[in-house]
Amino acid sequence: MTAKVKIKIEDVTKVFANNAGEHQQALASVDLAVYDNEFICLLGASGCGKTTLLNLMAGFESVSSGTIFIDDKPVLKPHPQYQTIFQNYGLFPWRTVEENVEYGLEVKGVSLEERRAKAAGYIEMVGLEKFRNSHPHQLSGGMQQRVAIARALAVEPEVLFMDEPFGALDALTRFRMQDEITRIWQENKQTIVFVTHDIDEAVFLADRIVIMSPYPGRIKTILPVPMGRPRDRTDYDFIKIRDRIFNEFELTVKKELDYYI
Asked: What is the pTM of this model?
């Protein structure tokens, strides 16, 4: 049985204009299909357009040309069923953990009783039930990111867009959060598009890795990760895939240097 395409990107180009009226092409002729319930990573160095591509899929930016569809409907603006999690958490400092997780449900008009019950379930899922009455400043960075994940999951989205959500965390917390998001995805089976510049993170998380190259941003190659879960970072297959991606990056960097020298 062929997997259903959840997100379809066809010949997408994005051009930005600066204050001087000059134009810079951020993306060029991008084509990509993301399947239902797939965990996909957009991987690349700074300037390759991976965050721009994610923002286009999430509806925060408009394409200059081409089309993006989710469930065969064109993406024109953000949608409550497609939630985005950023690196800076985006929590409301005046709200408790419970109130932050309830926020999306509150906006949707869900009754107090129902949203409290739903929030409690997702707070428990991310392991923060003892901190439900705490405020963000009382939590570590990893805990705050778990609140952001719980808030996004509480509205039961079909798609999660994640823009380097663990980039500001220390290494050990980052590993724990990678384990956590893998577990949550396996339980909920949303479609996840995850932006990262970390090769190990992409290999640990993704079903497929979309490697992007810059100037302008484009898809260089797409690599499947044929490994089960949980994944062992010391496993031979893990290291082999990581080394292949590293070699792809080396070739890309060399070509860029040869072009500009």
From this structure: 0.87
